[in-house]
Amino acid sequence: MSVIRLGHLSLKVMDLDAAIHHYANIIGLVLTERTETQAFLRGRDEQDHHSILLNKSDSAGLDHIGFKVGREEDLAVAEQLITKAGAAVQHISAGEEKGQGRAIRFQLPSQQTIELYYHADKLPYLNGMENPDPVLREGEVAGVKCSRLDHLLISTTDVEANMKFMRDILDFGTSEQLVDDAGVPQAVWLFCTNTMHDMAMSPGPDGGLQHLAFWVDNRSDVVNAVDVFKKNNVRTFDYGLTRHGVSGGTTVYFFDPSGNRNEIFTGPYMTTPVPGRVAPISWDMENFPRGAFYYENELDMNFFGELT
User: Among residues 201, 306, 260, which one has the least CA distance to residue 54?
Assistant: First the structure.
């Protein structure tokens, strides 16, 4: 069974128009289509129908996490493994989620809903599919000009149980981990592709979303992102532009209008998607402030406590 990448995130937002403005005009995603209650967006380097699904709701937060599998038949294999692990599986018919084929959904031990699917409708790149110009014309993409959805961080009361589920059932690897004095994981960074994390987990209430991250091509793009945010009165995290010791990535955090935390991110090291081929880096509690925020070398616990 092969999970090949993070495909999309389905978010709950309280003001759909404000959320569309944020994700399209500030972050720079492309609006594929919208209805009265939903909007579907993708990055400029993404062909799939959507990587972000916005759902009008009474509260903010995570609706579900979509992972793509490599073959149609992987869905049946995954269902067997998930059922054997004791989780209930829900079947989603083709077209029930716009732009997507049939899927299965289930809950992690920490109660976040995961969706596995194979097919997504394909759309052309913004610069075309025949003899394209690699440089987009001015105005074709607004805002930060993010390339794609990169990763997310969720909260859980049992990091180790969640990690084992993702490893044993979905073949994820662990690139880095925060461990206590007994060696028990307190936070983990998990991957299924050649980036060092597609999903991370930290301590907190079950069901929580800590942040979702978008990829830009280099560090200067992160600096430009901060300029865009300040010009548009988007509040950034207190540290502003910073760097993680975990991954080595350069980053800035901010919020969408409903309170879902976003991140602009670049610069992590590469892994291999082959299970068992990457030995995890370990951080202890004493040194983790440098792992979390390398420049500041301090840990603001409010950062981990603000969830949707």
Answer: 260
Instruction: Supply the pTM of this predicted model.
Output: 0.96
CATH number of 150-305: 3.10.180.10
pLDDT digits (tens, 9 = 90+) for 198-220: 999 999 999 999 999 999 999 99
Pick from 112, 140, 142, 146: which is nearest to 128 by CA? 140
Question: Which whole-number Å values give the CA distances from 87 to 50, 111, 153, in the listed order?
Answer: 27, 10, 21
- H or E element in which residue 103 lies: strand 103-107
Interhelix angle 74-84/159-170, rounded to 10 degrees, is 140
305 Cβ neighbours under 8 A, 6+ residues apart = 204
Identify the CATH class of 3-117.
alpha beta
* Domain ranges for the chain: 3-117, 150-305
Give mean pLDDT, residues 44-67: 97
In the structure encoding, which two tokens stand for residue 164, read together?
């084992």
- In angstroms, the Cα distances linking 124 to 35, 130, 295 are 21, 10, 40
